[in-house]
User: What shape does this take?
Amino acid sequence: MAEIVKIALTGGPCGGKTTALDFLKTRLEQYGVEVFCVYEQATALMNSGITPQSAGSYEFHCQLFENQLSEEQKAEKSAQVSSAKKALILCDRGLLDSRAYVTEEEFSQYSALYGFCEESLRNRYDAVFHLVTAADGAESNYSNSNNSVRSENAAFARKLDSDILSLWVGTQHLRIIDNSADFERKLTRLLNETLAVLGIPEPLEIERKFLIGFPDIYYLNNMKHCRRVPITQVYMETPDEGAFRIRRRGEGRGRLFIKTVKRKINDMKRVETETIITEDEYNDHLKNKEYIDGIISKDRYCIAWQGSYYELDVYPFWPDRATLEIELLSENQPYKLPDFIKLIREVTTEKQYRNKVLAVTYAKFFNRG
Assistant: This one.
């Protein structure tokens, strides 16, 4: 059975999603990946005569949601019988995108019809790649001419792009593909990010970690492109499986449960294998208390800032500091830290700031006195 990965391409109008879909399919097939594309549904629906004006906004987006969900489910069934080693379901837009076009109440109503909420949809895909509209950074290339139903001017396209990005902040693997280079290099970066998610040539995690001053929580909670995600991590080592980590990510109906095995290459680079598990599987692991090496809970603030995605972790035992991480494609990839954080120093190579070590501090904090 193929290893199945699902990626959503999102972003404002004229970001290159449709072109990118075909580009990725062609290039990834050269790596032996079987690609199942879920093409954009709104244009097809409007070309058939069903528009927000003719059907009403709620009815249109409810139908759009149903159509896309159906196409994703068809792609999932096809991927499940793939004979390839890896199968990729590649979606032109994610199911959460329509939230940018309707009220919160309307979205909650029609997504609930199919058993979803915002948080569960945010965690539906293995990765989300936000292709920034050409109206932001490549204005001369912004056009409505290649889509007969597109009518947004550049200013509205930028607003819509920002609104859509804010919806996806908080998902586990979000990458922002901006217009800092020409379109050909934009596609090349997208390909490299996709290969990284697929684990080709191997599933590497390359990240830098920083010790920072305690952040302004009010500021974070009021940032448009920031979302708090509660996390609990449990470190385990069993006779059968060796060392691994299980994680509960999020809260309520949208919680995600993940099992992670890491193999260290150096202080910055690790081979990482992640598997989505059920809540029952997570709880079964917790029953084996003798195999638990440590537990830590924290609030993670996922932040999209100037084309990069950061994870800022706040711990209950630190009133004066926190950590900030950024995941990179290579060890020498340039990066810039957000200007609103107070950097103390980089701690990528300092073992005492790894979460498994911090779990000891967490245990002492809750067992003090």
About this structure: The mean pLDDT is 93. The chain has two domains: 3-198, 204-367.
